[in-house]
Design brief:
Helix content is about 30%, strand content about 20%. It is α/β, with parallel strands linked by helices. The protein folds into 2 domains: about 210 residues, Rossmann fold (3-Layer(aba) Sandwich), CATH 3.40.50; about 110 residues, Rossmann fold, CATH 3.40.50.40. The structure holds succinic acid. Succinic acid binds next to loops.
Length: about 350
Amino acid sequence: MRKLLSVIALTAVIGTAWASDLPNVRILAVGGTIAGTAASSTQASYKAGQLGVETLIAAVPEIKNVADVKGEQFLNIGSGNLTDDNILALAKRVNEVAADASTDAIVITHGTDTLEETAWFLNLTAKTTKPIVMVGAMRPATAISADGPANLLDAVRCAADSQSVGKGVMIVMNNEIHNARDVTKMDVTEVSAFQAPTAGAIGRIAAGKVVYFKSSTRPHTAQSEFDVSKIEKLPRVDIIYSHLGDDGVLAQAAIESGAKGIVNAGTGNGTVSKHLFPTLEKAVKDGIVVVRASRVPSGVVTTSKPDWDKAGFISSGSLNPQKSRILLQLALTKTQDKKVIEKMFEKY
Ligand code: SIN
């Protein structure tokens, strides 16, 4: 009886045997528009996170020619509702799945709204060289020209390709391959929404063939120093979106809410307005780490004003505010030393 129970338990953990000699790809489903449905094929409003992973896989029978896949329903929600706890749990699950010797690669279906944030978090915390490819869709599964099935097939193609080993976490959408660090969502509705405005795409799926142009120069996944197995809770880091007339009231609210870090999505080259400056300067003196990012979607935030350096603000480099927030959260799990965190922003 005990033996039977342990066989059942083991089967629950590693699933049934893989069916073929093709690469073994696990598909973890988190939700989003790729699993969304509307009342009709032309209706603009729809509900994200409605279809289960097996339905998504069954809709793309061509996958069977590329890989042997197994689905796992991790969550089924709109990605705008994901929490820090959710992505921490996902990273832990990804590490468990990647540690299974029979798994060659992982595909994660996910909503597009925060896809880049989860991808970046996993890029810094997944302890594996196995390919991890994230994918979403801009149109729900019921739409007249749904992009989800083709994106899912491309994601599996990318994950199953031996060239993808050691490339870190990637996002495959609209026939393009992007690394998690540089990609961002640039359009609210178009299927070409995902772009890397400063660094460009790293590859393409051209007529079903995976073609790489370049790789990220930054350390990631197995080379990263961040270890989620030691993290139970991510520290609070808030993003302040700056604007004409910013008087620091939102920065003050973040401080009063107990933020351990603040990312200022500043105007232009990470500008901290003279009205906001005293609030952030005091925040640093009180032990809060402040990062200067930019609300402009492209470019590299440089250190450009002596009083900002003197105040101890850290430059985000080419990380956008939402990715700066993720890196700052992970950095704060290791240290509060501004100099060390500054080096992490230069490194990753
Ligand atoms: C979501 O992010 O879950 C909804 C939007 C999308 O997937 O495109």
